[in-house]
């Protein structure tokens, strides 16, 4: 199996980030994560962030950048990410209320952002939730339509396996379907609770994580990114437990 980096999506620690962004990064490094995926930069200037990441031995995988910010400040995001040694700019969310015409417009936008990001030496991708698997755009599920309507080198896949399952699809089949276009996987566990879901520490839910990790390794995924939307324990405890689960299951960092 190919070795993959293990990173943390910092949205999981949004409370800690708001209280002390620099201190939060220090704690993530102390836990033993190799990389971080940002969800905002906490107002830290790029040069200072780069120096801090180097001091802590953390690699910047990339950052989640919402559609509004992509529309109004794409160049700033490219410049910042380059300055901290990151690679991936990811659109994390499109409103599930978007209609068919709206989706066509968004997909054209994603293609254009991807072309510009790639022209400047970085990579651009899209991160799914469940609703992209629950409705169609033309003959295809919205998720597939997004990637069928864009070029593989321009729009990459960041696949959240929890939400693929929540949308009623098989994450293993989807990992294989998008092999070669899928550098990043959000590794998340969950269980059904009433009409909703509860996100859990790795190994506590119903996601077939061992199979997901094996399929990811076989298909050239670069980073497994731990994320937990809502933690039942203090978030730093939860992410430590998830990282320990990965170590116990012999997932070795690159």
From TrEMBL:
Which InterPro entries does the record match to this protein?
A: IolE/XylAMocC-like, Xyl_isomerase-like_sf, Xyl_isomerase-like_TIM-brl
Q: Which SUPFAM superfamilies match?
A: Xylose isomerase-like
* Segments forming domain Xylose isomerase-like TIM barrel: 25-248
Gene3D superfamilies registered for this protein in UniProt = Divalent-metal-dependent TIM barrel enzymes
Short name of one Pfam family: AP_endonuc_2
Q: What is this protein called?
A: TIM barrel protein
């Amino acid at each position: 199996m190919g070795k993959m980096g293990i990173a943390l999506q910092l949205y999981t620690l949004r409370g800690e980030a708001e209280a002390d962004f620099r201190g939060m990064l220090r704690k993530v490094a102390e836990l033993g994560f190799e990389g971080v995926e940002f969800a905002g930069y906490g107002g830290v200037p790029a040069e200072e962030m780069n120096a801090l990441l180097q001091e802590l031995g953390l690699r910047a995988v990339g950052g989640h950048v919402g559609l509004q910010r992509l529309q109004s400040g794409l160049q700033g995001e490219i410049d910042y990410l380059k300055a901290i040694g990151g690679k991936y700019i990811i659109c994390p969310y499109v409103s599930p209320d978007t209609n068919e015409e709206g989706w066509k417009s968004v997909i054209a936008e994603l293609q254009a952002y991807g072309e510009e990001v790639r022209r400047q030496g970085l990579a651009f991708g899209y991160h799914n939730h469940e609703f992209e698997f629950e409705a169609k755009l033309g003959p295809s599920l919205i998720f597939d339509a997004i990637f069928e309507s864009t070029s593989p080198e321009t729009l990459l896949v960041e696949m959240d396996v929890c939400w693929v399952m929540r949308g009623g699809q098989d994450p293993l089949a989807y990992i294989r379907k998008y092999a070669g276009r899928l550098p990043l996987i959000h590794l998340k566990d969950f269980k059904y609770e009433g009409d909703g879901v509860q996100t859990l520490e790795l190994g506590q839910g119903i996601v077939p994580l061992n199979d997901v990790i094996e399929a990811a390794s076989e298909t050239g995924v670069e980073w497994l990114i731990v994320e937990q939307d809502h933690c039942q324990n203090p978030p730093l405890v939860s992410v430590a437990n998830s990282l320990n689960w990965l170590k116990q299951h012999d997932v070795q960092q690159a």
